[in-house]
Amino acid sequence: MTNEKNILQDSHGRDHGYLRISLIERCNLRCTYCMPEEGVQLSPKSHLMTYEEIYEIAKTFVNHGVTKIRLTGGEPLIRKDIPVILEKLATLPVELSITSNAVIIDKFIDILKANGVKKINVSLDSLDAAKFKHITRRHEFEKVYNNILLLEKEGFTVKVNAVLMKGFNENEIIDFIHFTKDLPISVRFIEFMPFDGNKWDMSKMVSYAEIMNYVNTSFTKDQIVRLQDAPNDTSKNYKIEGYKGSFAIISSVTNPFCDSCNRLRLTANGQLKNCLFSSTESDLLTTLRTGNTIEPVIQKAVQAKFKIRGGMDTLEKLQQPKLHNNNRSMITIGG
Ligand code: SAM
Ligand code: SF4
């Protein structure tokens, strides 16, 4: 049954007030868990949303109840017209935020502030420069590290996203938590998720339970404080008593948070994805370009949303490559 009034409510009663827009399929890093070694097939430029189209589509979502927009990619800051995209979206009544690898974010401090961006999520998977180079295939550790410090100093709310992988950076969990001792940032440990071309297998993933084991062996029960999670939060939040910052775990694999999911995703080539894990997409851009209204397409896509992880509702299903290989690579979804 469709809901005429609220096109952003799905058949499981979830309202979708949060739109993540991927601005670009390219990136200045090459994280192994995100971008396949051989690269990805890029859309021709003419198939990518222009800034006017991004604005038109975003405005439609806002008219139907979206209150939060997060810009992502690829690396959103390498898109040449990012200043005008920010300026246009800042005219909408939304909380505007961005996810970036922060390599060049120091050049954008004023423009982000001028357009009301207050929350910035930054990817950083290792505090060790050599390991950073290994995972991102680029030598940019210092820039990213210094830019995280800069963002904090400039008054942004900073969350650092670290994807954990067995035998690679799980031994840095406690170092990352110590990083929050004097810095009021949140480090979020993300369970490694399967996407096309990222050679995922369950044995490489560090689970929520394993992360908490590390925490429990390094800190006493009294030191570990469970924080209140925000509504629709994807993470379980904690802090160490007396530390300025906090840490969190995003457990999409072992403990999905789909019940309270309020997110929709728009890819850089204008496809609406109703779930990070969904293998189907709805073509908003062609609909817009042919002069038709996009609302019916949005409503149909939202109605088709599965209750859990794009239909991969068990760990067994998640482990079947044919199910997640139908999805895109993460670099072209946007995280
Ligand atoms: N380039 C920006 C960045 O790295 O923050 C934005 C795009 S990136 C695709 C968004 C987020 O997706 C990053 O925090 C990244 O760590 C996360 N991500 C990418 N591939 C992932 C995977 N296989 N499992 C878990 N998280 C992943
Ligand atoms: Fe680029 Fe972000 Fe993907 Fe790394 S995680 S390759 S920085 S888009």
TrEMBL record:
Which molecular-function annotations from GO does this UniProt entry contain?
4 iron, 4 sulfur cluster binding; cyclic pyranopterin monophosphate synthase activity; GTP 3',8'-cyclase activity; GTP binding; metal ion binding
Alphabetized SUPFAM superfamilies for the sequence: Radical SAM enzymes
Q: What are the residue boundaries of the Radical SAM core domain, all occurrences included? A: 11-222
Keyword Metal-binding on this protein?
yes
Per the UniProt entry, what species is this protein from, by scientific name? Algibacter luteus
Q: Which CDD domains match?
A: Radical_SAM (cd01335), Twitch_MoaA (cd21117)
The protein in question is named GTP 3',8-cyclase
Provide the alphabetized UniProt keywords. 4Fe-4S, GTP-binding, Iron, Iron-sulfur, Lyase, Metal-binding, Molybdenum cofactor biosynthesis, Nucleotide-binding, S-adenosyl-L-methionine
What this protein catalyses is: GTP + AH2 + S-adenosyl-L-methionine = (8S)-3',8-cyclo-7,8-dihydroguanosine 5'-triphosphate + 5'-deoxyadenosine + L-methionine + A + H(+)
Q: Which PANTHER family match?
A: MOLYBDENUM COFACTOR BIOSYNTHESIS PROTEIN 1, MOLYBDOPTERIN COFACTOR SYNTHESIS PROTEIN A
Q: Which cofactor does it need?
A: [4Fe-4S] cluster
The record lists the lineage as: Bacteria, Pseudomonadati, Bacteroidota, Flavobacteriia, Flavobacteriales
InterPro entries given for it? Answer: Aldolase_TIM, Elp3/MiaA/NifB-like_rSAM, MoaA, MoaA-like, MoaA_NifB_PqqE_Fe-S-bd_CS, MoaA_twitch, MoCo_biosynth_MoaA/MoaC, rSAM
The protein's Enzyme Commission number: 4.1.99.22
Q: Name one GO biological process term.
A: Mo-molybdopterin cofactor biosynthetic process
The answer to whether keyword Iron applies is yes
The record, for Gene3D superfamilies, names: Aldolase class I
